[in-house]
Specification:
By secondary structure, the chain is mainly alpha-helical. The protein is built from 14 helices and no strands.
Length: 352
């Protein structure tokens, strides 16, 4: 939530300067990921000397300290458009998302063709259709679908959706694969939780570096092509898992490549969405990149759960390990979806 809003504010304060917005977005993402690494290391160091209650209070204290920084440090921005809250649209989209998410959760238990799964997903799609009809006819829509469907905007939002498949959906399967004992299953690394944290730390560090690379790549090849480069790097990183997954060095290499591409996308998507939106809709489009990314990750998580399950359901015996083919499906889906995004982005550039 914070990153899209920060990018929208910066875009307005720079009077639509796209280059400065991308630079600021890269710095923001770098600071965010650097803070993740610092907090993880700090938590590990303090875990033995502080109680869990005190340790859990530290994030709340830090976030609370942000309030005066925002209140006194961020200048007020004049309102560029006025309108009333679209409560009916809010209720419809909430109902649609709740039903679809419930259907995805039930899918993990009943499979994709379960009666409850089909009923919930069908009801969610109906609610989504009613939401679209209502928003198109409303004077002050909650989500301006005409802006979202514009030629300059929809490929960016679809890219965010496809990016969510890997950045939000593939992290848990990766961790379980690394911890799986090869002596029992014939695959995996059998590493400790500490080694998995190193793997995640390398990924986060590469993500931060990718965010800093975004302005440089965008200056060299253009902002949209920079997004395409990031998507290709994500695709390469995950497709490399198919032949190379037998050692920690291979996993670190694959995740490093995917992490650099992911950093470029995390910083670039809200910035380029704001660049290609009317001044009155910068907050909408930057926020929607986060929403579509989250929806993509939620759908991918359910699909990946089915791929890793024995017999198409996760309701079986808990000590049954997922097949290696299931992990192959996860990595292949992440790679293929990441390859689709550059095609959409380059098609948009050609049409423009």
């Amino acid at each position: 939530m914070w990153l899209p809003l920060e990018v929208a504010i910066i875009h307005r304060r720079t009077h639509g300067d796209a280059a400065r917005t991308r630079l600021a977005a890269g710095i923001l993402v770098f600071a965010l990921e650097f803070a993740v690494i610092v907090s993880a290391l700090t938590a590990g160091a303090l875990a033995t000397s502080l109680s869990m209650t005190v340790l859990l209070c530290l994030p709340a204290i830090v976030v609370t300290a942000v309030i005066p920084a925002i209140w006194f440090g961020v200048p007020h921005q004049p309102v560029t458009a006025e309108g009333r809250m679209d409560w009916a649209g809010f209720a419809l989209v909430t109902a649609a998302l709740v039903l679809i998410m419930a259907g995805l959760m039930v899918m993990r238990l009943d499979g994709p063709l379960g009666i409850r799964t089909l009923m919930l997903l069908g009801a969610g799609l109906v609610a989504l259709f009613l939401f679209a009809r209502y928003e198109l006819a409303h004077r002050d829509p909650l989500v301006d679908l005409r802006v979202m469907g514009a030629r300059a905007q929809w490929p960016i939002q679809v890219t965010a959706f496809l990016f969510g498949v890997s950045v939000l959906g593939a992290q848990v399967p990766l961790s379980t694969f690394a911890r799986t004992d090869p002596a029992i299953t014939g695959y995996g690394l059998g590493v400790s939780a500490a080694a998995v944290s190193i793997l995640i730390g390398v990924y986060v560090l590469c993500l931060a570096l990718g965010a800093l690379l975004l302005p440089l790549v965008a200056r060299a090849v253009g902002p949209v092509r920079a997004l395409a480069v990031g998507s290709v790097l994500v695709a390469i990183g995950y497709l490399l898992f198919l032949p190379f997954h037998a050692s920690m060095a291979q996993l670190l290499t694959n995740m490093g490549i995917a992490g650099i591409g992911s950093g470029m996308l995390v910083a670039g998507l809200p910035a380029i969405a704001a660049e290609n939106a009317p001044p009155t809709h910068t907050g909408l489009v930057t926020g929607m990149t986060n929403t579509t990314k989250t929806i993509g990750g939620a759908i991918a998580s359910s699909v990946f759960a089915l791929a890793l399950a024995q017999g198409g359901s996760i309701g079986g015996v808990e000590d049954v390990h997922p097949p290696l083919a299931g992990y192959m499906v996860v990595w292949a889906i992440c790679g293929v979806t990441a390859l689709i995004a550059p095609l959409l982005l380059l098609l948009r550039t050609r049409r423009s």
